[in-house]
Amino acid sequence: MKPLFETILKSIPAPKGDPDAGAQMLVSTIDYNEYVGRIGVGKVENGCLKTGQEVVIVNHHDPDKQQKVKVSKLYEFEGLQKVEVSEARFGSIVAVSGIADLHIGDTLCAPEHVEAIPFQKISEPTISMTFCVNDSPLAGKDGKWVTSRHIRDRLYRELNTDVSLRVEDTDTTEAFKVSGRGELHLSVLIETMRREGYEFAVSKAEVIYKSDEKGKRLEPMEICYIDVPDEFSGNVIQKLGERKGELVNMHAINGGYTRLEFNIPSRGLIGYRGDFMTDTKGNGIMNTIFSGYEPYKGDITYRKQGSLIAFEPGTAVAYGIFNAQERGAMFISPGDEVYAGMIVGISGKSEDIEVNVCKTKHLTNTRSSSADEALRLVPPRIFSLEQAIEFIDSDELLEVTPHSLRIRKKILDQRLRKRAEISAKAKAGN
Predict the structure, then answer these.
(1) What is the pTM of this model?
(2) Helices (H) and strands (E) in the chain, counts
(3) Structural domain boundaries of the chain?
(4) Angle at the Cα of 99 (from 117 to 16), degrees rounded to 5?
(5) 242 and 265 in contact (C-beta within 8 Å)?
(6) CATH architecture type of domain 17-109
(7) Average pLDDT for residues 360-376, to the nearest whole number?
């Protein structure tokens, strides 16, 4: 590492600042500790910051914010450790604790020199999902933390470090609305929670709409940059066109690639990443950036295939799966536990189909010539967390446990589900 460090010292310019000016520090990261609370991390831009010093919190994007606080503890970094110090001069990367209402983008200033440091405004959430208690027949078998209180506490604790996340209580104590900056943002939170032992269910991702002064519905838009091999550009343009994407720029780049630039609704990108990787054979690169709100672009069809739904609870067997796989692609293997209302595959048709994967072959006194032949099962389709989030429809939930991902209908009972479908069609007709 010595050559690297010597190169850094030789090539990277020293920090610029005024050592005699009033203290100024821009908070660029928020950390959290159960014992000391919120910790603001950033660089001292000017002057000297000291323990016990009175400072004023201001924000470049919030001119009305002006709060007097005291720095209770000050830390500098040595390797991966924080070392408590009494003062830090300009250019130092420090951590400040003892200030409860501290956010990314805040500037800590000396009272005699109150001036906010400009910074990039943090993007507002554009996608929301419902996190709810898992109430399936298999609930509680995997997770360590399963109650609504545990889930609520964990979600609100995440707000201490994730400034782009929003958590809201709903009409029921069993569910919470969680909003973020995209499917990936929320899937990282879901994966972190399941690894910590939490068990819960999540709904399909939905965009957050706004209204203008005339009451017209506005939706979040993204600028989508795609680098794709020339032979696959047609597939990408067609698929994003179906999702209300508008091609605004297209030009060739090095290596036989084409760069495409789309203006597309955020909801048009929900569930697209899997199709994108398939259509480009894993060679495409996609990046997006939030561009603002525009008038609603029209309805989008996400999934054209229905689901294969388990008819009864039990253990899936080879004979039942063999008969069901004629209807579509399966998600389960023999020996997997299933319950009524659980989605065990994707249908080849547009409507949902109920199948009995627990059905066993009846024994008879006679044996046919093919009786002893092994049943040929197609390998099941195994979803990753991101693929499962993209797959689920608006009337489905993803059951998340530390060891399993199961997709199910929101309403498990077949009769109640049919009634809800009829009622929804009647309301749509009116």
Answers:
(1) 0.79
(2) 8, 28
(3) 17-109, 123-209+392-422, 220-295, 304-362+377-382
(4) 30
(5) no
(6) Beta Barrel (2.40)
(7) 60
